[in-house]
Design a protein that fits this description.
Structural class: mainly alpha
Oligomer: single chain
Number of helices: 19
């Protein structure tokens, strides 16, 4: 409950501040909330056995990732040159590289149970109160705060009937609030598609899950290769279809915006060009890495920008191919175990949700210390736990949500 409230406060203040609403208390309060969450995560991590309940591969890979993240932050401290570098390190990237500690919340069934129930009883239920605030500040505010709903959609069969209605309502409202929040729409649509497998589980072979799992992992890599080699650009190809046009609600402008517009190709080009010029593909530019941009030159100093809107590009920029490969491997192995070695359908569905985030990592996924990544790492920790994977569906429903599963 403590972490959840603090993250709600920090995320809300962040998105309110992003709309140019200035207040001398916004940043200090948001940062205080984030650091309190971080200290709490460190406390749980110190109390936890880093190998207990995990496969040797998962345990080793998580430790390597975390160590590499810490090295990336330390490199950033050594390479920081001015006030803006230090501000970005302490307020943004340094925090993001430590949010994997939420893995230990997920690795504890009791803490996960508490977190899930707090989301249902507090975040989703009282989150509707944020809608009026979103309408007068940042239209994306409500949808951003409700990002964890994409994980809870696949839990619908396991929760009590009143909570099923709540989850569906939150998902629909978060989409309707900002129709041009594309990744939110995609996440929710993917989760509902995965949820349908529950209702057809008696005729759906687990082999389908295995095939889909491999496809979701390799498709973005293949498309990236085709784009880099100039053979096929999925972003520009999609932009040729201008049938999906909505009002732009992101900045209260109200202009038409195409949901298939190519807003990513030029960012890929600029980041790749910077990595090539700086010869930093392998190790990255550290946690204070910046890329040269001509597209945002009116918004940045010296044509240098601290990261972009694309998760994989930020990972490459800060921690290089090493960081991106380690992250991809962890998502692949954890989701593989969830699908292949589990006795409950929820684990298999969450495995697909996790690997789908690898695809979205190439589209958006702001690399921030926020509710989105906090719950992603909780889910990663949960499905990594052998005790959870060995539960049957009735045990999962009863233990996590106090619901007697009737299926």
């Amino acid at each position: 409950m403590f972490n959840l409230i603090l993250l709600i406060i920090s995320d809300a203040l962040l998105y309110i501040g992003n709309m140019g609403i200035s207040n001398e208390f916004l940043v200090p309060v948001a940062l205080t909330a984030k650091f309190l969450v971080l200290f709490n995560l460190i406390y749980f991590a110190k109390k936890s056995n880093w190998r207990d309940g995990l496969t040797k591969t998962t345990s080793a890979l998580f430790i390597i990732i975390f160590v590499w993240n810490v090295i990336t932050v330390i490199r950033g401290a050594f390479l920081a040159k001015d006030y803006w570098d230090w501000k970005f390190l302490f307020f943004n990237s340094g925090l993001f590289f430590l949010i994997p500690l939420a893995f230990f919340i997920g690795k504890s069934l009791s803490l996960t149970k508490a977190a899930f129930n707090y989301v249902l009883r507090f975040l989703f239920l009282f989150g509707f109160l944020a809608i009026p605030l979103a309408l007068v500040t940042n239209p994306q505010l409500y949808s951003r705060l409700m990002l964890p709903v994409s994980f809870f959609i696949v839990m619908i069969p396991y929760v009590k009937p009143r909570d099923r209605l709540l989850i569906i309502t939150v998902a629909i409202v978060s989409v309707l609030m900002v129709l041009d929040f594309r990744t939110n729409v995609i996440k929710i649509a993917i989760s509902f598609l995965i949820l349908f497998t529950w209702y057809f589980r008696r005729v759906i072979s687990v082999a389908w899950f295995k095939i889909l799992h491999v496809l979701l992992f390799f498709v973005p890599l293949v498309l990236l290769f085709l784009g880099v080699t100039g053979q096929y650009n999925v972003f520009s190809k999609a932009s040729e279809n201008d049938s999906y046009v909505v009002k732009d609600n992101k900045s209260n402008v109200g202009e038409d915006e195409s949901l298939t517009a190519d807003t990513r190709s030029f960012i890929y080009i600029e980041v790749f060009k910077t990595l090539t010029n700086q010869d930093s593909w392998i190790f990255g530019e550290s946690a204070v890495g910046k890329y040269k941009t001509e597209s945002f030159d009116n918004l940045v100093e010296n044509n240098e920008r601290f990261g972009s809107e694309v998760g994989v590009l930020n990972t490459l920029l800060y921690s290089g191919i090493i960081g991106a490969v380690l992250y991809g491997l962890l998502l692949f192995i954890v989701s593989h175990n969830a699908i292949y070695y589990s006795n409950n359908w929820l684990c298999k569905m969450l495995g697909l949700v996790i690997i789908s985030r690898w695809v979205l990592f190439f589209l958006e996924e702001f690399t921030q210390f926020d509710l989105n990544f906090y719950f992603l790492w909780i889910i990663i920790g949960l499905v990594s736990l052998k005790q959870f994977r060995m539960m049957n569906d009735a045990q999962v429903s009863q233990f996590l949500f106090g619901n007697i599963l009737r299926a």
